[in-house]
Amino acid sequence: MKLHSIETELEGAGGLGGRRGRVQAADQALAAARGAQAFAENEVAVQRAKLEAAEAALYGGTVRNPKELADLQHETEALRRHIATLDDRLLEAMLALESAETEQRQSTEALDAGEAGWEAARAQLERARSESTQQIERLEGEREATLAGVSAADLALYDSLRALHGGTAVAEVLDSSCGACGVAVAPSILQTVRSSPDLIRCRQCNRILYAG
C-alpha cells in the first residue's frame, strides 16, 4: 500500500466521523423527544386537575345556581374533549420517544462496533506506514549512493526522459521487448544491455533499457 493511501485512510479514521455525527443527532433527537413527552404529560396533568376541580364543584352540592351548574357542565365536557386530544398527543410523544431511543441505541451500537474495528485497522495501517516510511528512507539512501556513481550527462539524460515520459525513464526488457512500449529488442541489443556499462535506449520510445 502506498504511503499516501495509508495517510488518507488514517485521516479518514474508518469513517467514524459519520457514525459520530449520527450518534450526536440521535442524542439531540432523544433529548427533544423526552422534553416533548414531559411537556405533554404536564399538559394532561394540568387539564385533569382542572377537570377534577370542575367535577367537584358540579357534583359536590356547593353550587346550586342553575346557570352556574350549566356552565360547569359545559366546562367539564370541554375539558374532557381537550384531555382526549392531549392524550392523543401524549401517545404520539411516547411513540416518538420510543423511536428516538431505538435510534440512539442503534447508532451508539454502530459507533461502538466501528470504533472496535477501527482500532484493529489503525494498528495495521500504522505498522504499514512505519514499514513504508522505512522502505522509502532505504530506497532514498540507495538512490543517493547510486547517483554518486552516475555521470552528469547520464543523470541529465535520465531527468529529461522522466520529464518526457511522465516519470518513467527506464524500461525493463520483457520477452525480448521493451516493457514500456512493446517494441521488439534485437538479441544483439539485448546482449549489449546486459553487458555494457553504457546506457542503451529503446529505438521506439527512447527510454533507457535494462535487463531484469
Summarize the SSE layout with pairings.
Layout: H1 3-12, H2 16-59, H3 66-147, H4 152-164, E1 170-174, E2 177-178, H5 187-195, E3 208-211
Parallel strand pairs: 1-3
Antiparallel strand pairs: 1-2
Helix pairs in contact: 1-3, 2-3
Write structural notes for this entry.
The protein has 2 domains: 3-147, Helix Hairpins (Orthogonal Bundle); 152-211, no CATH class. Helix content is 75%, strand content 5%. The chain is built from 5 helices and 3 strands; from the N terminus they run ααααββαβ. Helix 1 (3-12) runs antiparallel to helix 3 and helix 2 (16-59) packs antiparallel against helix 3 (66-147). The model has no long low-confidence stretch (mean pLDDT 88).
